[in-house]
Amino acid sequence: MKKIGLDHYPEGVPNEIECDVYDSLGHFLAINCQLYEDKPAFSNFGALLSYRQLDQRSRAFAAYLQQD
Fold this sequence. Notes:
Elements: H1 25-35, E1 40-44, E2 47-50, H2 51-66
Antiparallel strand pairs: 1-2
């Protein structure tokens, strides 16, 4: 199967991740939020969300979901 969009990846972004390095998707995200905490995770309509902000907000949302 042809993987579309790979030509549009920024320089340095791998085409695949090494799945056996991470225990879970959550582990993958936690490691990358630490590694890239001050770099932009998302950009939309001029607003940026850093990996640090992504980590903080996703943890807050998870805590909210666990409340009774």
